[in-house]
Design a protein that fits this description.
Layout: E1 4-5, E2 17-19, E3 24-26, E4 33-34, H1 40-50, E5 74-78, E6 85-89, E7 92-96, E8 103-106, E9 118-119, H2 126-137, H3 145-149, E10 153-186, E11 189-213, H4 220-225, E12 235-236, E13 246-248, H5 254-274, E14 282-311, E15 314-321, E16 327-329, H6 335-341, H7 345-358
Parallel strand pairs: 9-14, 10-13
Antiparallel strand pairs: 1-8, 2-3, 3-4, 5-6, 7-8, 7-13, 9-12, 10-11, 10-14, 14-15, 15-16
The structure holds zinc ion (2 copies).
The site of one zinc ion (ZN) has 8 residues, from loops.
């Protein structure tokens, strides 16, 4: 038992990876392709062999071929292909060997209780992520020229981010005070009639796969902005999909993340019901009771391209949804350029608004 999975090409022995363009496993050396399903059996056998039913969080650092981590929180693995030592964070589930480039998958981080239910395989490749970054920088007039002109991409990583998906039913009871206004003129007087209404709404609403990322390392807001993912592409998890990518196991449990999901569900429920109250001049919620009945929770790995660039000693992180191509990230602003452009008061005001809103695209 080695605890590490590596996928080898049966034709040439090369390391095979999941290819997002063909949605198949592909050997980059001899171009042989396999369906991911072909590897299912191999996968299942290896996982059985490696799974440890009495797994505990603290046991990560022991057993298998792992050596003692030299630093706290780090674990060392031995690459099966080249024998190189791979030092990784303890949550690491998939990475590539820094010496030979082979993909390395840590079976125990993905089996038993930690086995994901679903995975959305990568649809877009590294080149697409780099192209989207270039596009993202285009036309941003306040961006320092230096940031644009030089290739500052320090690191591009295809990461399967751990997500919890919550199914639930919400029951809502909402009461609002609403008004309708009616104005007319009579002689020298303007009359306004205000009609007061008590508007009530109640009912049930169902939610399917509300996502919340289960990784402390990944910024919650950044991950939320990458949505939506299309879950019709989600398939049963198989480790082969991770070959060639990075993955960490979750470090926030489904329970830890539930409050975030519940807030979203509550907000969506509230908006869905309030949206049905139309035709009033004002509407002020007076009573709102939303009960959430949690259903199934699934553990999923969702594809994210993370791009890091360094500018003036600061790291800027961009992220792209690896399925849809939705791209987000913060950009530095050139203060000198901002002053030059903001000629008049009006222009300055527009610009400030643009800075506040447009820059966090
Ligand atoms: Zn091959
Ligand atoms: Zn290696």
């Amino acid at each position: 038992m080695s605890g590490i999975l590596e996928y080898k090409c049966p034709c040439c022995g090369g390391a095979i990876r999941f290819d997002s363009a063909t949605q198949k496993m592909k050997c980059p050396y001899c171009d042989t392709e396999f369906d991911v399903d072909t590897l299912r059996q191999f996968d299942e056998e290896r996982m059985e062999e490696d799974s440890d039913p009495s797994w505990q969080e603290d046991s990560v650092a022991q057993g298998g071929d792992e050596l003692d981590g030299e630093q706290e929180g780090l674990v060392t693995y031995v690459c099966e292909s080249c024998g190189g030592e791979i030092v990784a964070e303890r949550n690491m589930a998939a990475t590539s060997c820094p010496y030979c480039g082979n993909s390395v998958i840590v079976a125990k981080q993905l089996s038993g209780m930690l086995r994901p239910d679903l995975v959305i395989p990568f649809k877009l490749d590294k080149k697409a992520a780099e192209d989207r970054l270039r596009e993202h920088l285009k036309g941003k007039i306040l961006l320092p020229s230096l940031f644009k002109s030089e290739n500052r991409i320090k690191e591009v990583r295809g990461v399967y981010a751990p997500f919890w998906l919550y199914d639930c039913d919400a029951q809502a009871d909402i009461r609002c005070r609403a008004t309708r206004l009616n104005s007319w003129r009579q002689g020298d007087y303007m009359y306004t009639e205000t009609q007061h209404y008590l508007v009530a709404r109640s009912g049930d609403i169902g939610f399917d796969k509300v996502p919340a990322d289960g990784s402390l390392k990944l910024d919650d807001a950044l991950m939320d902005s990458l949505e939506p993912y299309d879950y019709t592409d989600a398939v049963d998890f198989q480790t082969a999909y991770l070959a060639g990518y990075f993955a960490d196991k979750y470090d926030q449990s489904a329970q830890d993340c539930a409050p975030r999901a519940n807030d979203r569900i509550r907000m969506s429920t509230q908006n869905a019901f309030l949206d049905t109250i139309i035709g009033y001049a004002t509407c002020v919620p007076e009573h709102m009771n939303i009960q959430i009945k949690q259903g199934k929770i699934r553990y999923a790995l969702l594809p994210v391209w993370l791009l890091n660039t360094v500018y003036k000693g600061q790291i800027y992180t961009f992220a792209m949804n690896g399925q849809t191509g939705k791209f987000i990230g913060n950009l530095p602003a050139d203060k000198g350029k901002a002053v030059a452009i903001a000629g008049g008061v009006f222009a300055a005001a527009t610009l400030l608004a643009w800075l506040a809103l447009g820059f966090l695209l």
